[in-house]
Amino acid sequence: MGIIHAFTEGLSSATRRIGIVFWLWIASLLLALPASLVIIQGIDRSLDDSQMSQKLADGYDDYWYRDFHGQAEGILETFHPTMIGIGAILNGLDDFIQGDFYGENLGLLSVGIAYLLLWVFAAGGILSSLADSCKFPFPEFASKCAEYFWRYFRLAIFLGLGYWILFGWLLPTMNDLVDSITRETIDERVVFLWTLAKYGIFGLLLALLNLTGDYAKIVCVLERRRSALVSLWRALKIGFGNLRRTLPLYLLLFVLGIVLFFVYWIFAPGAGQQSYFSVAWALIVGQIYIASRIWLRVCFWGAQITLCRGILQESRPEPAPAPSYAAEEPVAAE
Amino acid sequence: MPSRKIQRILPAAAFIWGTLVAGTDYTLDVRLDAEGRTISGTETIAWTNETEYPAPDLRFHLYFNAWRDKKTSFMTSFRTRDRHFDDYRENDWGHQEIRSLIVITAIPSEDPETPTTRHTDLSKKIEFIQPDDGNPHDRTVMRVALPEPIPPGAGVQVQIEFETKVPRTIARTGVRGDYYFLAHWFPKLGVFQEDGDWNCHQFIQTEFFSDYGTYDVSLRVPDDWTLGATGEEQSRVDNKDGTATHRYYQERVHEFAWVTCPLLREYKRTFEHPTLPKVEMRLLLMPDHQGQQDRYFAATEASLKHYGEWWGAYPYGHVTIVDPAYQSGTGGMEYPTFFTGGSRWLTPKGSGRPEGVTVHECGHQFWYGLVGNNEFEDAWLDEGFNTYSTTKTSLAVFGEDLYEQRYLDGMVPVLFADLHEAPRNVSGMGGADSDLKKDVMATPSWKYGPDAYGVNSYTKPAMMLLTLERYLGWETFQKALSTYFERWEFRHPKPADFFDVMAEVTGTDLNWFWAQTYYSSNIFDYAVDSVHSSDEKQSVYVRRVGEGLFPVDVRVHFENGDVAEEKWDGRGRWTQFEYARADKIAAVEVDPEFVLALDVNRTNNTWMRKAPSTFASRKWGLKWMIWLQNLMEISAFHM
Hints:
The structure holds two protein chains of two kinds.
Chain A: H1 3-16, H2 18-47, H3 52-58, H4 62-71, H5 87-97, H6 106-131, H7 138-181, H8 188-222, H9 228-241, H10 243-267, H11 276-315
Helix pairs in contact in A: 1-10, 1-11, 2-6, 2-11, 6-7, 6-8, 6-11, 7-8, 7-9, 8-9, 8-11, 9-10, 10-11
Chain B: H1 4-9, H2 11-20, E1 24-33, E2 38-48, E3 55-61, E4 95-107, E5 116-121, E6 126-128, E7 141-150, E8 155-165, E9 174-176, E10 179-182, E11 188-189, E12 191-192, E13 198-199, E14 213-222, E15 226-229, E16 232-238, E17 243-253, E18 258-261, E19 265-271, E20 279-285, H3 293-310, E21 318-322, E22 333-335, E23 338-340, H4 355-363, H5 380-397, E24 402-407, E25 412-420, H6 453-472, H7 474-488, H8 495-506, H9 511-517, E26 526-533, E27 538-544, E28 552-558, E29 563-568, E30 574-579, E31 585-590, E32 606-608, H10 613-637
Parallel strand pairs in B: 1-14, 20-21, 21-23
Antiparallel strand pairs in B: 1-2, 2-8, 3-7, 3-11, 4-5, 4-8, 6-7, 9-10, 10-18, 12-13, 14-17, 15-18, 16-17, 19-20, 22-23, 24-25, 26-27, 27-30, 28-29, 28-31, 31-32
């Protein structure tokens, strides 16, 4: 099973399941909207009938932001003007790799956890659909989701432990190591290279953990596993046993994600919308990117399930040749 | 000045010279031991008692003792105590040790032509005192009791042998790798004031104060290391043992700092101006900032030009700009004729780095270097003045900075071209826990409470000055400030001196203003309270939200295009403007020209009938939503 075939099959199968992508995107929107309304109300209250509202409508005013931030509490404190454009992604990504989740705001954390649980639930239906190479009507899809939910929930807990080790122990250790190595370094370029190396290694380990999680979910479906631990074990064997294919495929999909990122950077709207039409357009561009991220996730699963199926088929023993019964001379009756 | 050779042979002659010198002169001859991270050598201080009081003792700053260990007053102060130094090893700490201290005083003799001198070894009379906090672990102030007081008008020479252990930088000075930046690195005499008392504070949370004088300093360092310092290099001698001795000299300064590192590269350029003196600029640049020399020079020229035109000429004829090494902790600091900027390997134009810090630190040559306020007591007299001047210069030359976010451990910058960053101001500082309320500006700087130093030294005084500029008009204000500069150049002004000059030149009683700002922690906030309309009458209510009082203009726009300009003395809690007319009020602006830069909330200064707040809030709220959705995708990806 070739990587390219798995990759193209992944893209194709995800695209054929655009309905799933659509509903997951709707879910993302519905989960994010209530919190956004709090932000909208907070900004509205701050602006009141001030002429600052005209400045914000036309662009941006930093004096307003300082007034607003000086009084902001709770979720309002998470608002920052650099959330525009590519900052919408970079700010969150940077916080994430530093281990800062949702600005430690409980409200936002709850939204994040809810979305995570939604994916845990939906994964069963998505992967079943990909495994069976068919699209289910909604009741069957939901039934598949329910069937695999607790297995995937247990799997998420195990993976969570893995992420905790990576973010809670490994990353701080690597930070300390790089600090120690560059303790007397006075050339920032050298420190930059060490930083790149640090995040390169950390990113690779993160990818391997994520890859393992993906294959564990896939194995659950393909091999009808009930045990999360056994699925994990199988995933380790498949994933690491075929690393020359599983990792490049994962990285190829990652590169696709980078491409999407840079395409968004080109079109990402800044602060200049001055009409409801342009605001709507900015929102649409942003939502297209969100939907493409969801589509990409399904691509990952589609491609990996294709590769995994191929690997499993290759590893099955050759069936014994069917006996062939040649025409025989009738035995003469004695 | 007699050569050093004559000084050694004829101490009497040197002593006579010392009695004629105003200020405090330093002659140093030291060697840097890069392996041991020490500086050792000799120092001769010539000091004259210019007061009417006898000096019974001598007091010195030993700044590097602030970094002996974690128990010093500096290390346990508000500004430092939350920092962790768990990774500091034994060799990372610093200190200053006095090996010997000899005081040379005059002995009255019958022949006035040949005075005799007495050399008194007071090495064993050294004691450490803690006049500010009584912390017995703090050794940043050394006192030496004299056998006889130094009478008014008399001079003294002090010869000191010392060793300074250079720390891994904790604040402003130290070593990192092969990069040494040395400031306040030698025993420094305090200031004997006109009231007969020493101003010699412990080194806790402030910057510095010392007398003007002449510095003649010989520095011996590895021969392939670049060196820069206060003053101009007089000579460089190759010692043929792998070291070279650089001799630097400068008159009429109050500090001597230097830098040495094998990686620094030198660039030179000349500042020229039709009405200001020429200045030779020398830039010492680290290799990872190659390509930024033009930016450093442009910022230095901007500072020399604008400060020179507005306040007064830079007189020294030369200045050295140091691009500090990465992680050295020595950036953004000023010393006479010598300062550090600050940059990053990746620093896009428009981010304000290195321009902003360079304008500021070069600006300190004027406010701090030439007008030498006591930073222990009145840090705002240089920091506030310079912050105000820096903002004006930067806006005039470079415009507003753009928002810069740095990612990947702060290594990779992204500029947001749509977002202009406001210059330093007090917007948003009106809350109950505002830093503006944590202390009064008039409190001596060394006594400021937690979180009070920065706002009272930098932001608030800068806004004070900006308010005065707008209130008095630029022409009057500039004349007052330049008079103050001219009058107090090479002297040590106090706040009252500044207030007196302002009153004299502007012809205006500003005591009500100082009472509100300098002597109080009142917050200023004026707002539009409400607007009422009927068919026959329109009303505007304007409110004073803060405790500070300031006269404000109120501009009322009507729907038919008419504009009413009102004035309010700002004293009551509210005022009302009524108009017997049918045209509705379209907009109201309190302090439309933003004269009161101290107003902590600009948003509530204005009102408009058709304010698009709904549109604006949705526009920005939906941007926030996209940020949240991206965050959700990042974490969900890893389930």
